[in-house]
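Structure ticket #2291
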Amino acid sequence: QVQLVESGGGSVQSGGSLRLSCVVSGFTSTSYCLMWFRQAPRQGREGVAGIDSDHIVTYRDSVKGRFTISQDKDKNMLYLQMNDLKPEDTAMYYCAARPDFCNGNLRQYNYWGQGTQVTVSS
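Resolution: structure written out below.
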């Protein structure tokens, strides 16, 4: 059974940092994408950063240079280091997985965590 469990969210002031973590268990596909999505109140869910089985990483433009996605395969962990946070980064953050390379179509992600809240105040 595949399970994804996020942690690390919280409340910070603008310019602060947070590190999100996601435990990925039971997911054994050799070709895969692990993606961080986020959803702000009254908005759609959007892709933030992804990493695939070829170690190719992708970021949405608004977080480039501020966010870094990484994984520790030995520990089955996915991370999102978020620096220089802005109020517009406020959202529920989800990790998701699919047994194929990354894309931004959230409907193609088979597995999701429950989310962790990030709140950035100005």
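Closing remark: The mean pLDDT is 96.
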